[in-house]
Design brief:
Blueprint (H helix, E strand, L loop, with lengths): L22 H36 L3 H15 L3 H14 L6 H12 L3
Helix pairs in contact: 1-2, 1-3, 2-3, 2-4
């Protein structure tokens, strides 16, 4: 703040970045955040696609399909996004990994859709 009470930068001065951080550092942080958000968006889309596959396989409601996906993740110890990716890629691979296939069958049976 100057003597007039203004917090605006003086003529010819660059505005201070939030928290006084270096602008180049802030740009790097924002790029990392954008990349993280993009990855989260893609992961969410794959989870939605896998849930749709499971709903179709088991004639389930959407909430049941997501719970089956979570169950497979817990049973296999794999991350939810990894299980989702494997299920979405299943048609092009012709089979699921040895731990995922049985876990999916068991979870579908528990949900009443297998």
């Amino acid at each position: 703040m100057d003597r007039s009470g203004s917090t605006a930068p003086a003529r010819g001065e660059a505005p201070a970045s939030p928290g006084g951080a270096d602008p180049a550092r802030r740009i790097g942080e924002l790029r990392r955040e954008a990349r993280r958000l993009q990855e989260a968006l893609v992961s969410h889309a794959v989870v939605d696609q896998a849930t749709g596959v499971i709903i179709t396989l088991g004639a389930l409601r959407p909430d049941e399909g997501l719970e089956v996906l979570r169950s497979v993740s817990r049973r296999t110890g794999r991350a939810l996004a990894d299980v989702a990716r494997l299920i979405v890629e299943w048609p092009s691979r012709d089979r699921l990994p040895d731990d995922v296939g049985p876990a999916l069958r068991a979870a579908l049976e528990e949900a009443g859709g297998g």
